[in-house]
């Protein structure tokens, strides 16, 4: 009777995907918004912590990696 309620495993806060809310797409040139998805050690923050949806998280990781290659973001913290 309750089998379609599977994505309710974690205590959900009112988190929404930054890109969906602002109607944006992750862009490797847009380091300002990419920076909010990487932590102090320049690691990509997990989707669950930022509230990014799976679709945008995939695009986001690609954008961040692309951005690193273009030397817009750092690979590691120094
Ligand atoms: Zn989204």
UniProtKB/TrEMBL annotation:
* Gene Ontology terms, MF aspect: small ribosomal subunit rRNA binding; structural constituent of ribosome
Q: Which SUPFAM superfamilies match?
A: Ribosomal protein S18 (SSF46911)
- One example of a Gene Ontology biological process annotation: translation
Q: Which UniProt keywords apply?
A: Ribonucleoprotein, Ribosomal protein, RNA-binding, rRNA-binding
Q: Which InterPro entries match?
A: Ribosomal_bS18, Ribosomal_bS18_sf
Q: Which Gene3D superfamilies match?
A: Ribosomal protein S18
Q: Name one GO cellular component term.
A: cytosolic small ribosomal subunit
> Which family would the database say this protein is a member of?
Belongs to the bacterial ribosomal protein bS18 family.
Q: Spell out the subunit comment.
A: Part of the 30S ribosomal subunit. Forms a tight heterodimer with protein bS6.
The role this protein plays is: Binds as a heterodimer with protein bS6 to the central domain of the 16S rRNA, where it helps stabilize the platform of the 30S subunit.
- Protein name per its UniProtKB record: Small ribosomal subunit protein bS18
User: Which organism does this record belong to?
Assistant: Candidatus Falkowbacteria bacterium CG1_02_41_21
The organism's lineage is: Bacteria, Candidatus Falkowiibacteriota
């Amino acid at each position: 009777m309750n089998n379609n309620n599977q994505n309710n495993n974690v205590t959900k806060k009112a988190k929404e995907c930054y890109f969906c809310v602002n109607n944006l797409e992750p862009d490797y040139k847009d380091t300002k918004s990419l920076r909010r998805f990487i932590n102090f050690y320049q690691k990509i923050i997990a989707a669950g912590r930022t509230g990014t949806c799976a679709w945008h998280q995939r695009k986001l990781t690609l954008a961040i990696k692309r951005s690193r290659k273009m030397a817009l973001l750092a690979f590691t913290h120094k």
